[in-house]
Prior knowledge:
Blueprint: E1 3-18, E2 24-34, E3 41-50, H1 52-57, E4 66-78, E5 81-95, H2 97-100
Parallel strand pairs: 3-5
Antiparallel strand pairs: 1-2, 1-4, 2-3, 4-5
Amino acid sequence: MKIITIAGNIGKTAETRNTQNGQTVTSWAVAVDDGWGDNKTTMWFDCSWWGKRGEKVGPYIQKGGKITVSGELSKREHDGKTYLTVNVNDVKLQSKAEQSQGNYDAPAQGRDLGDDIPF
């Protein structure tokens, strides 16, 4: 088993579908920068999360957001191209797409939370 953890930008909003056998799978793409300066390239990973956990988190995985994904690394070939794939075990959402574009109102920015702090 090849376990990988990647952190990058969500390049494709998650889509949830059911297979012919009735299994639920949620899929999306993650772009990860490799290198720096003139040598900088982007590696793309196709992510698939099977079952209810993926289905529940899917609506929060929006294009433009930042995410960390852990899972089993594999690859697939199609039309002479090689695609890196991750069979997801765990996800950490770093930000929503709206946050990465600056269109949000963070709860702690300039507001007095008073007694609303949960800890």
